[in-house]
Design brief:
The protein is mostly helical. The protein is built from 6 helices and 3 strands, in the order H-E-E-H-H-E-H-H-H. The protein has a 3-stranded antiparallel sheet with strand order 1-2-3. The relative contact order is 0.20.
Length: 112
């Protein structure tokens, strides 16, 4: 497999990572980003009003098992009022996601 073929094969393998909230014990997922999504995330977080950058980031990473976002722009103010343990732990998990190896990418892209 060529380098080009191998890296393009990873496109289908961006499955969300399971996450458990340390405060509530509820389960959700953290989105895995493409390069374009990461750039949009950085732009949105940097553009957010003072005091809302973490809440904005949280809305962009929390999703269900299929990658559908759980929160929207209308939720940012409420998220900003949450305990830092909830938002901070999710952002930390997002920022420390494991990189996807080729073997895992090939496994994830296999039909189920």
């Amino acid at each position: 497999m060529s380098f080009k073929t191998a890296i393009f094969a990873t496109i289908k393998s961006l499955k969300p990572e399971a996450y458990t909230c340390p405060v509530t014990g509820e389960k959700a997922y953290i989105k895995r980003f493409t390069v374009a999504e990461r750039e949009n995330y950085i732009y949105a977080v940097n553009k957010a009003q003072d005091g809302l950058s973490n809440a904005t980031g949280f809305t962009m990473i929390m999703c269900d098992e299929k990658g559908n976002l759980l929160f929207g722009e209308d939720d940012i103010e409420k998220i900003a009022a949450l305990p830092d343990d909830i938002v901070g732990s999710a952002l930390k998990a997002f920022n420390t996601q494991k990189t996807l190896g080729i073997e895992q990418a090939e496994k994830n892209s296999e039909p189920t």
